[in-house]
Amino acid sequence: MELARRPxxxxxxxxxxxxAAARRIVVFTGAGVSTESGIPDFRSPGGLWTRYDPxxxxxxxxxxxxxxxxxxxxxxxxxxxxxxxxxxxxxxxxRLAEAGRLAGVITQNVDGLHTDAGLPAELVCExxxxxxxxVCLDCGDRGPxxxxxxxxxxxxxxxxxxxxxxxIKAATVSFGQRIPAEVWARAEALTVAGDAFVAVGSSxxxxxxxxxxxxxxxxxxxxVIVNREPTPLDGLADAVLHGEAGSLLPALVEAALAxxxxxxxx
Length: 266
Hints:
By secondary structure, this protein is α/β, with parallel strands linked by helices. It folds into two domains: 1-39 and 85-128 and 178-266, TPP-binding domain (Rossmann fold); 40-81 and 130-172, SIR2/SIRT2 'Small Domain'. Helix content is 36%, strand content 17%. It contains eleven helices and nine strands. The protein has helices at residues 12-20, 31-34, 54-57, 59-64, 66-80, 88-98, 113-116, 145-153, 181-193, 211-219, 245-257, and strands spanning 25-29, 102-107, 124-126, 129-136, 142-144, 168-172, 196-200, 222-227, 239-242. The chain has a six-stranded parallel sheet, with helices on both faces. Strand 7 (196-200), helix 10 and strand 8 form a beta-alpha-beta unit. Helix 6 packs parallel to helix 11 and helix 9 packs parallel to helix 10 (211-219).
């Protein structure tokens, strides 16, 4: 059943006022936050899926087909070569944390840029895992992705686990894999604990992740959506802003932390 539509205000002033009144802000980030750091997204023109078929990289096929793993490792090598660094959207989240107003960041991204920006790991919930680690699907051994990529660079097209000879992959949630139960429970708990939920740079079409802003709306939490393009959940939001995360999120944070803002008073 579709949730009831709320009034939508497509302006910075309205969204800023909502965050200014909040004391426990949850930020939910998608690929649009990382694109400004030079990391390509998946669905946009020129995105990764225009060069890598997602059907070939899904989890079941990855396990059963060495050719799919070779393609996946080429993609991983390409991503590893990017010199991606945090942008103003990541730093805006750090500013919220330093002010004591950030309940946590729930991110669909696997690039680790939130922690690079200075957010403590305990404030970051990576619901789709981490691309900075590899994991063995057989024995569970883990290690830095840089080590696995170095083996690919040296000529191994499908590196095997050095501990048991099993299949290794990025420690990310691929198509066909489930988000670990404990990670999902943490994401839901953060959503429930917040009195404002800001979805930034996400198309909000990937489930179950897109269920989190829906949950926030159902609970009556102030919901703000920031994205370059309209999303299917815009009609549920209290405020919708269309534009770049790197400019809009810092502006929202400044509004939330302004001395005259209700939530800023101590």
